[in-house]
Give the backbone structure.
Amino acid sequence: MQNFFDYFNQSLLFRNFVEVLSGLDNTLLLLVISLPIGFVLSLVFALGRVSKNKILSKPIAGYIFVIRGTPLLVQIYLIYFGLGSIEFIRESFLWILLKEPFWCGVLALTINTVAYGSEIFRGGIQSVTKGQIESGLSLGFNKFMLLRKVILPIALRKVLPSYGNELILMVKATSLVSLTTYMEMTGIARKIMAKTFAPVEAFIAAGILYLFLNFLMVQFVKYLEWKYNPHLRVNES
Amino acid sequence: MFKFDKLVFGDLGWGDEFLFATLMTITVSILSMGLGLCLAILTVWAKLITNKITRLIANFYTTVVRGVPELLVIYLIFFGGNTVVMSIAKLFGYHGYIELNALTIGTIAIAFISATYSSEVLRAAYLAVNKGQIEAAKALGLNKFQIFFKVMGPQILLHALPGIGNVWQITLKDTSLISVTGLVEIMRQTRIASNVEHSPLTFLVTAALLYLFLTTFSGKFFKLLELNFSKGYN
């Protein structure tokens, strides 16, 4: 048995695994900053998108159209290489942040998730039936109360599965930030590959970690669904 | 900042290079979408027949490929693919060095990713077709092939078309990732051009516009196709 553990500890896959694990915090850091900001902004943008004010809804529609029509890689490169080539930005205070690949990654991921997220939330908000809004109005709710007590709870609950999907896509999207020299899990796997010439072991080690991360995300969304959709719970007794 | 005069056609600019790169992107997208659909049909078949082993393999495949970043799948197939192909060739008695070109590898990698999404769409579409349709076809005395091609196929296609359109958009955008393999498609061409001209913004904006053009027009195309297919229903 001891022999087996020694062999396992020295195997390339295990050593790669430990090394890739050291990039986990960088991956998580990207998510921890961009997901909450993305969530809040998605809600705001979705509300702007459904508003009757054309000056508000049209630019947001355009923004969503452009971001959803271009690959994330283009957006990351535009922010990392593109913004850096503008003189005006290089001389402004923004340069302190934008010269770091990390903040470029955060910015790109946030911009991307807001476009997809606000489309999802818009679907949820528009799916609230008229009768529910009318009954809210008949109770004397003002606009804010209506939003806070009727529209958002119903909408958010409904879109949980599809927003969960978007969250998983975001976990996967963080790997693209490695192309801007930011050393998260994919970047480290790539470095290991260049060092050991054993691509399969390096990328499988990273793949297992991403699978685990996504598994946790799925469980989290499932828990939220269970918690906020009590009427859909299967009988547990 | 912007050097849009560098985008002219001919020797002075990058216009023709970008045209070829765009054609390459379209080629890779169509090839991998087609291959992905074939793989997806196989996956759906493996999931729907009552065989535990095939279902297990198919579920494992879709779970793993959808849970791992696309970039990692591409790296794995690009760097690990040659090893696999050579070991398969060894089984057949060939000991030389084989190297697959970037187009083949890229197409296979994107097809693997695209197939996982397509299989979900096709599975849902298959399950959406009323079981009574099969029974009615059987009552008419159609054989298995006739049932599939004359009765089930068209209806599955009708249900699947909107989803397939979405998968196409995802596939088209995912092809930007195979620029890491060195295949000269839009993204790779953008990197080359911006390194030569020291003007990344020009070419990145061009690339974004090209992708926007491709996604918008193929989206319109799928809308038309949907209208055409649902003629009988409205």
